[in-house]
Amino acid sequence: MSFSWHRDTLTVVRAPTVTDPYGNPRRDWSAAVRTPLPGCRVQPVQGSRVNAADTIPREGLDRRRRVFAPIGADIESTDRIEWAGETWVIEGDVDRWRGPTGAVAHTELILSRMEG
After folding, report:
1. Are 74 and 43 in contact, with CB atoms under 8 Å apart?
2. Is this model's pTM higher than 0.85 or not?
3. Residue 68 CB neighbours (<10 A)
4. What angle do CA 9, 11, 17 make, to 5 degrees?
């Protein structure tokens, strides 16, 4: 179900898994596929200020956003999300919430971005 206030369009960035020279799997972000995902709602979530170790004189800001996406949104926890000109990572799982009838009501995820 899409609501009139779900007006944000995200871009889902999905990178294929490749094998590095040591035989380990890794994501190849240079070969990523970008897919638009309309019908989303992005809301702010309280972030936090992060202090680095005493040997690194800098602070960071952990920014977060909550996304409500359409029921059938093709999003995986290993994807990245582009929104508002910035690239975000998905924190934790992509949740598909069920309504009172048992049917999936919406998809929900948390985006995170470190600055500083």
Report:
1. no
2. no
3. 20
4. 160
Supply 105's token pair: 């009501």
* pLDDT digits 0-9 by tens, 62-74: 789 999 999 889 9
The letter for the amino acid at 74 is D
Tokens of 94: 């992509």
DSSP string, 47-110: EEEEE--TTS--EEEEEEEEEEE-TT----TT-EEEETTEEEEEEEEEEEEE-TTSSEEEEEEE
Supply 32's token pair: 């990523």
Locate tokens 């059938």: which residue?
Answer: 72
